[in-house]
């Protein structure tokens, strides 16, 4: 069964890691997918490998003008947008508050928080035309509590901001058939984590399941939220953390 048949989805930060897992899974389940990323070579190669149901557009999520191009291109190729996965994000440098450079702080906030806001602001009008929509904002367990391994205040602050933005948009558009939810991964085997640390006992200790998640395990949660199977779910937080936040 193709769970996203007839859906048109934008996935930011889609060239590799979590975004790539989302793009592959969504196409497999019948969606038309627009992959966006600043990583042009990887993104273009991924879209080509996925065939006619995927296109890649180079995109900086902090650019409002860039978002306009994404929406116009998506509508031209595939029709009105019905799914948005705000996945693009950066961690920034490890630093205490007093040692965190303000420009570094603003950079992390711009990608992780402003990018989510601009994505929703830009895509919701297309969803309103479609008469439906599901927005999945990829946050972090650090958007619920200061989790082990949180790199800096900018990262934590930006992920808490995503949690709040999600709830606000969900309430504003609940009567317009647009649902907005957030997904909160713990440790995931992506480029943010040094591969040499994937099996480090110090990294794994906070997680009761005793391992990091594979990107596909997060993508399956987003697949459910993007599909009509989750039609009564909005303004909610979905932890994909192996039990970390229960400790």
TrEMBL record:
Keywords: Oxidoreductase. The keyword Oxidoreductase applies. Its EC number is 1.1.1.47. This is Glucose 1-dehydrogenase. It comes from Sphingobacterium alkalisoli. PANTHER family: SHORT-CHAIN DEHYDROGENASE REDUCTASE, SHORT-CHAIN DEHYDROGENASE_REDUCTASE FAMILY PROTEIN. SUPFAM superfamilies: NAD(P)-binding Rossmann-fold domains (SSF51735). Belongs to the short-chain dehydrogenases/reductases (SDR) family. Transmembrane segments: none annotated. Signal peptide: none annotated. Pfam families: adh_short_C2. The keyword Oxidoreductase applies. GO terms for molecular function: glucose 1-dehydrogenase [NAD(P)+] activity.
């Amino acid at each position: 069964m193709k769970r996203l048949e007839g859906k048109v989805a934008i996935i930011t930060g889609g060239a590799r890691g979590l975004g790539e897992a989302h793009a592959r899974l969504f196409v497999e389940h019948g969606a038309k997918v627009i992959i966006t990323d600043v990583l042009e070579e990887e993104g273009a190669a991924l879209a080509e490998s996925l065939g006619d149901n995927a296109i890649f557009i180079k995109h900086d999520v902090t650019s409002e003008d860039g978002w306009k191009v994404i929406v116009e291109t998506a509508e031209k190729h595939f029709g009105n947008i019905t799914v948005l996965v705000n996945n693009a994000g950066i961690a920034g440098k490890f630093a205490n508050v007093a040692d965190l450079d303000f420009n570094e702080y603003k950079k992390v906030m711009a990608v992780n928080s402003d990018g989510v806001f601009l994505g929703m602001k830009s895509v919701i009008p297309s969803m309103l035309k479609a008469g439906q929509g599901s927005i999945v904002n990829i946050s972090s367990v650090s958007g619920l509590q200061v989790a082990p391994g949180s790199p800096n205040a900018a990262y934590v602050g930006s992920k808490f901001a995503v949690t709040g933005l999600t709830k606000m948009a969900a309430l504003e558009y609940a009567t317009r058939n647009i649902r907005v939810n957030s997904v909160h991964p713990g440790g995931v085997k992506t480029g943010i984590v040094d591969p040499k640390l994937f099996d480090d006992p110090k990294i794994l200790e906070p997680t009761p399941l005793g391992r990091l998640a594979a990107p596909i395990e997060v993508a399956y949660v987003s697949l459910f939220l993007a599909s009509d199977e989750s039609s009564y779910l909005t303004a909610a937080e979905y932890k994909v953390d192996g039990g970390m936040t229960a400790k």
